[in-house]
Amino acid sequence: MTRPLSRVALAAASALLATTLAACGGPAPSPSPTPSEPGATASASATPTTPAVPASTSIDGITVTGPAGSVPEVRIPTPFAIDETRTRTIREGHGPGALADGVVETHYVGINGRTGDTFDSSWKAGSPQLFLLTQVVPGFGKGLEGAKAGERRLIVLPGSAGYDADGGQPDAGIEVGDTLVFVVDVVSVSVTAATGTAHQPELPVTVGEADGRPTVTIPTGQQPPTGLVIAPLIVGEQRVVGEHDIVMTHFRSWSWNTGRQIEDNFDAVRSGAIAEAIEGFRKGVVGQPIGSRVLVIVPPAYGYARASQKPPIAAGDTVVFAIDILFSYPQG
Q1: Distance CA 119, CA 123 (A)
Q2: How far apart are CA 10 and CA 78, in angstroms?
Q3: End-to-end CA distance of the chain
Q4: Cα(163)–Cα(19) distance, rounded to whole angstroms?
């Protein structure tokens, strides 16, 4: 029933998903549960094709059962309609909540409140789905705001916050005025900055922070480490980055030879396939949880044995990276 937003279209839809990570390609969020624009409302000509169901002010009559991670069993006293978008937490999550303009990875099932029929299911599709919350029907986006990784949430929305503006979704059996019931398991959510447990590892450089951004001071005259150094400064609370993931980051880098900053990518999200990053950057990110800040000292054998023009790095220089991992999801 969904009309997928193409991976290219989603990347272009938001600056959050624009640009590239080092030598990486752009991100690839997958289908959205709506073709309509955020904030869309029903048109004056959109009228229910079946008798209206009295709108309830409560979702207490809807029950959701089933173990974590499995397809939920949902019971709805059909025909059912709701007055406005309402939510209920079935299972508590952890870590930061989903942002109104963020990206969320979920498993979900969608059920028509009028008929009780399932019209969409990521479990049936066989894998979690990604949603940019500014690119979904208003009720679904509103219902997911604040949801945390590991949370199971019930979202019930009226037709005016769903597909009424599109005249329903006839192919999925959704008519104008139909209330939609979603049960969503949140796998992970994007963050705008590192968030988690702070660590203070012993390092050959001095690490600080200014205006929410990491700073690094390299000691003058000291030889760089000969091996790769990976030091988490903040450890996030979500799932870890996989070796084949698309990763969204903020990062800064410094030259060991000069002590000067090379790049500052904290004004825009950088995203791309982590497998295509330089080896030292890749090893520093893979295995770290979403939300982490990681300091990575990359000797030439893991990075820039040859000179680079973009970014400008001399051959054989050691590069120090401070990386905030904002989101990650498997390619597929």
Answers
A1: 12
A2: 35
A3: 20
A4: 32
| Mean pLDDT of all residues in 312-320 | 96
Instruction: Quote the tokens at residue 247.
Output: 């990763």
The contacts of residue 54 (CB under 8 Å, 6+ apart) are 81
Q: What is the CA angle 75-78-79, rounded to 5?
A: 155
pLDDT greater at residue 2 or residue 275: 275
> By the 8 A CB rule, do 236 and 227 touch?
no
**Per-residue confidence (pLDDT) for residue 170, from 0 to 100:** 95
- CA nearest to 325, candidates 233, 256, 261: 233
The DSSP output letter for 284 is H
Record the tokens describing residue 178, joined without a space. 């139909």
Closest CA to 110 of 98, 123, 101: 123
Say if residue 10's pLDDT is above 80. Answer: no
Tell me the sheet residues that pair with 327.
248
Higher pLDDT, 110 or 35: 110
Q: Where are the beta strands (DSSP E) in the chain?
A: 63-65, 73-75, 86-91, 94-97, 103-112, 118-121, 129-132, 148-149, 152-157, 180-189, 197-198, 206-210, 213-217, 229-235, 245-255, 261-273, 293-298, 319-330
Are 233 and 207 in contact by the 8 Å Cβ rule? The answer is: yes
Could you tell me the pTM of the whole model?
0.85
Q: What burial letters (b/e) apply to 210-239, b meaning 16+ CB within 10 Å?
A: eeeebebebeeeeebbeebbbbbbbbbbbb
Task: Give the strand pairing for 229-235 and 197-198.
Answer: antiparallel
**Which residue bears the tokens 């929305």?**
157
Q: How far apart are CA 238 and CA 96, in angstroms?
A: 9
Residue 181 pLDDT? 98
Answer whether residue 317 shows pLDDT above 70.
Answer: yes
